[in-house]
Amino acid sequence: MSTIDGLPPLREVIAEHGLSANKALGQNFLMDLNLTAKIARQAGDLTACDVLEIGPGPGGLTRALLHEGARKVLAIEKDARCLPVLAAISDHYPDRLEVLNADALKVNVAAHLSPPVRVVANLPYNVGTELLIRWLTPQIWPPFWDSLTLMFQKEVAQRIVAVPGSKSYGRLSILTQWRASARIVMEIPPQAFTPPPKVNSAVVHIEKRDRMLFPADEKTLTRVVAAAFGQRRKMLRASLKGLHPDMEMILTNVGIKPTERAENISIEGFCALARALKPG
Predict the structure, then answer these.
(1) 105 DSSP assignment
(2) pLDDT per position as a tens digit, 77-111
(3) For residues 84 and 250, what is the distance between their CA atoms, to the nearest angstrom?
(4) Domains of the chain by range and CATH?
(5) Which residue of 72, 133, 140, 162 could cross-link 169, Cys pair, CB 3.0 to 4.6 Å?
(6) How much is the pTM?
(7) Is the pLDDT assigned to residue 73 strictly greater than 60?
(8) Which long-range contacts (CB under 8 A, 24 or more apart) does 227-233 make?
(9) DSSP secondary-structure letter at 44?
(10) Which residue has the higher pLDDT, 162 or 124?
(11) Tally of CB atoms within 10 A around 194
């Protein structure tokens, strides 16, 4: 792709600017521009969309998003060393790239974006899950984004798409699938990165639902799911006993055996439980 967008190959960019990956920032740079282009295409048609990218680093995915026609890319980068590289990309794509040197956990991104918005990112490992949960649990639904196309450690990706009865099924599965549809669209080996991580990675594409899959109060559902999976080896009558003085009766009333374990309960079952436990 370096011959397509006219900018230097990423290895040259990294060498010129001394951009060794910073482990403390959870950085692992994707070096293959053909691969970043494939990731960008997984987000769908970007020509009428603003795109949010977190942790662009030397800009491989940023270049792909712009080359694929994103109306605008908002790139949030905490590492000031990357700013000159991103500035060069901005010059190459005038008026289409906005870069914020900031902590993504502290930025009101909606103020910088116009809908429709798609989020596409090789998320830093140390904040990826927290960002996802924030995007899935805003105060008002629907959220500012239409879709999320995100790279995670493969293990995290599997948790996002897991179904009841599987080892990976848990809190992240429920929070995601209750309000969105999710699927793994790519798997990426360690050698695609610099430095290579010790784990495989995967890209998950998540599409928001206009309304939740089953009715439930978000705060109550979150509390129930956290308690259930916080002690996932225990029966629900034990793991949830702190939520109500007569937990066995409530479980029975919503059609859940008190002796069941969290990993066997469907999203519909957890939502029914949340409705039964909601105060007032």
Answers:
(1) G
(2) 999 999 999 999 999 999 999 999 999 999 999 99
(3) 59
(4) 2-208 (3.40.50.150), 218-277 (1.10.8.100)
(5) 162
(6) 0.93
(7) yes
(8) 228/262, 228/265, 228/270, 229/170, 229/171, 229/262, 229/263, 232/170, 232/261, 232/262, 232/263, 233/261
(9) -
(10) 162
(11) 18
